[in-house]
Each structure stands twice: as structure tokens, then as C-alpha cells.
Amino acid sequence: MVMSEVRKIKFKVFRFNPAVDALPTWKVYEVEVDRGMTVLDVLLKIKEEKDPSLAVRYSCRQAVCGSCGMMINGKQRLACFTRVLELNSKVVVVEPLNNLPITRDLVTDFSDLFNKEKMVKPYIIRDDIEEMKNPTGMYLQKPEELLEYLQFADCIECGLCSSACPTYSTDHLFLTPMILNKAYRFSVDSRDKGLQYRLPIIDSEHGCWRCHFAAACSSVCPKGIDPAKSIQLLKKIITSAGIFKRMRKKEVQLTLRPHAAEPPT
Q: Any alpha helices (H) in 50-176, and if so which ranges?
């Protein structure tokens, strides 16, 4: 019978409660770890056995909910999806995500991201209002139409891409890769007619044009989405659709496709 490998690993954990602490601190915990344990398993073990004051956010433990995103040895990762021994490190450094306000310890505030998500209207918009209210059938799609957005539809909103984004770190008005990917996913959906309503946000000073294609966002996505690609495709949609900006002092005039739908009422 093969015995499970067990090692003693030191966890250097970021600690900070903005309500009472003047400055962040670090606390080191030594934990016995076996092959199957994830970083989240260890953090919960620390919380249960060593320090109940440690704050960590989690839910599904299966890389589906996106709740446990954090910095692990300097890289954005999901704690529930990161096996400790696969890090090949005697010391594991755990911190909250970059670019986001700290709520407490390893928990960050996603309010900015969720508010920006509302701005790009992350849902299907159509002009056949009566059909939407009283549907007579399904909105069918061809397989090739589904494939246009399917690879970008698996976002779990973990925020790792926004944390890794160098543009967001210097411009907090930037929509971020997570939000722009969401805007592309719906704008390219064959059932959607809402591109023109998203344009004032995505085609703006802090929209898709602020992306410099560093691709840091794509390198950390736990679901294999390529938000850097979706942002470039979003730029292509805007330019190829014949949409042009004319700046007149503080006003921006948008020339849209003549067949664009009227706003839903």
C-alpha cells in the first residue's frame, strides 16, 4: 500500500482589517499538507484549527463559483483549484487579489466590477418586445452562430483577469477584461440587437481602446477563456460596423448602422 505524501509547508498569509488596522501584516502558519490538499483546504484548516479570525471567501470548492480568487505565490489563482504540493514551494504566499479594495484579509470588494457589468447590459436585447413578453417559439441558432461566442461564455466572474490587468492597475475607470469579455459575448450573439446600447460604454476613453493587449488576463483565466482575444474582436466589431466618432468640444456624435434596432421600451 502506497502511503500518501505528507509535507510540512509554511503559509505566509496576508492579514488586514481596514476597520481596525493601520497597516497590513503577515502571519506565518506551518501546516501538514498531503497530495490532495488545495490552498483553500489549508486556509480552512488554519481557520478551523489555528486562527478563526482569518477571513477567506469561498463557496463551491469546484472552480465554478469564482469566489476564492486570490494571489498565490504572486499569481492570480483559484484557491480551490490550486493543489499545494504542485506549487513545488516550501513557502506558499497568499494575498488578496491586486487592483481591488480589500474588505478583510484575503477578501476583496467586487463592487466596482459588478457596477461596470451593469453598464454593458450583460443580457440579450431585442426589438421584438411583444414576442419577448408573449413568446410563440424559441430563438433558434445555427451551430456556427453558437460557436461565435461559446468560447467566451464560460466566465465565472472570479476577477482574476481584472486583477492581472496592467491597464486596470493604473486606470480604475477602465472597464476591465472581465466586463469587456461579457460585452463581446452578448454583442456577437446572433439573437442580440443591443450593440448600439453598449457602444457609449465600450467605445469610450476607458473602454476597449484602453487595452494594450498585454494578454495577462488570458494567462490567468481558470476556465481557459481568452479575454484578450475577445477585446480585440470587440474592437474589430466597432471598426468594421462603420461606427465613427466625431468629437465636437465635449459632445460625442455616434454614426450607427442604419438597420440598428430602436431602444426597447
A: 111-119, 129-133, 143-150, 160-164, 166-170
> Residues 21-69: pLDDT tens digits?
999 999 999 999 999 999 999 999 999 999 999 999 999 999 999 999 9
Amino acid 265: pLDDT: 46
Considering just the CA atoms, what is the radius of gyration of the chain in Å? 22
Question: Looking at domain 6-108, which of 3.40.50.20, 1.10.260.40, 3.40.50.150, 3.10.20.30 is its CATH number?
Answer: 3.10.20.30
pLDDT tens digits, one per residue of 88-106? 999 999 999 999 999 999 9
Q: Which helix (H) or strand (E) segment is 238 a member of?
A: helix 227-240
Low-confidence ranges of the chain (pLDDT < 50): 1, 243-265
226 with 151: CB under 8 angstroms?
A: yes
Grid cell locating 104? 478583510
Instruction: Write the single-letter amino acid at 192.
Output: D
Cell readout for 59 is 463557496
- How long is the chain? 265
The grid coordinates of residue 165 equal 490587468
Pick the closest to residue 213 from 242, 185, 235, 184 (CA basis): 235
Q: Residue 5 has what pLDDT?
A: 83
Place of cell 456577437: 188
Cell of 1: 500500500
Residue 31 near residue 91, CB atoms below 8 Å: no
Domain extents in the chain? 6-108, 111-255
CATH number belonging to domain 111-255: 1.10.1060.10
